[in-house]
Write the structure tokens for this entry.
Amino acid sequence: MFNIALFGPPGAGKGTQSKLLIEKYNLAYISTGDILREEITEGSELGKQAKSVIEEGGLVSDEIIVQIIEKKIKTNKEVNGFLFDGFPRTVVQAYILEGLLLKLNTSLNCMISLEVPHDILMNRMLERSKKENRVDDTLEVIQNRLKEYHNKTVPVAQFYKDKGICYAVDGVGTVDEIYNRITNVVENTLTKTWLNVVLFGPPGSGKGTQGKLLADKYDLVYISTGSLLRREIEKGSEMGLSAKEYMEKGDIVPDEFAIKLIEKQIQLHPNAKGFFFKGYPRTIVQAYILDGLLRKLNSSVSCVFHLDVSLLESMKRLNARSKTPDKRNYDIDADVIVRRLETYQYRTLPVLEYYEIQKNIYHIDGLGTQEEVFKRLTEKLELAFKLVR
């Protein structure tokens, strides 16, 4: 999901540019003024609350506004993301938006600020006042609106500058000139957006084989915590010695091991297009950890794939692998195989439900030849990437 906040003082041309952007990128338009009026017109409970406040001459509370925005987001499921016009208006609202988007497993990708000199803004608004016969838009009123914007909204730009996602765009010129400047920023932001894929499946489902092929095809950094841990074991590192005991029993290693390994891989690839996580997270706690790791880097899980293979089929495949040079030490012990499958069933399958709620999971039939399964995965992955970008 791709989300933009379009900022700028009154008269900067946000409305005009918003219409062009939502059409080009298939975004839902969120303007607090518009959605408040919609709720009031519909006579919804939130609309009634907002109307009573407005009629009494008060300002609609952030609590009501955030509920209306959340409703708008949840009822627009066929879009690629959202464009926020004039919201957040305060630093408090910026924090509110961060929390709301976190709750919905997404984030703001960029904040674009239209920069227009004060004298040009004044001329634009006075001219608009004459054309639209807006008698309330006097010189004094316009000056107060611009002062209010500067005092309350400009600090919001600093909030996003500190996050590294605020981009100033020259708002002077023709509509097309300004639009081209904005889309250049958006396109550059899109190329910097990581594509992070998680591949699930029971032991023996072919995650490793398919994961490496997919990571290579889409130029993503392949991260298999199991492979990384086996490498630590081969090196005889302190982590490897500790992990060996868990892995030989078919148990999940302590979470701090995986965190260190994943963070190290991300740090080693600062110019990556994204990451392909094979077999991680394996527990609900690890799902929270992965979300936290990516959120720390202003990213998130883009999509999740589950290779659907029965546990009986998994046992057959693991047994067959135990007779090949590619066998793992734990493939030979039937008790360990059963333990690994039980761990997957009782601790990992609930993670799929976590991603089901977030509606970014794809179930893929894991039966068939390697080529057939790969084809199914790439078809769905192409679709998922289009939705992300």
About this structure: The chain has a mean pLDDT of 86. The first strand starts at residue 2 and ends at 7.
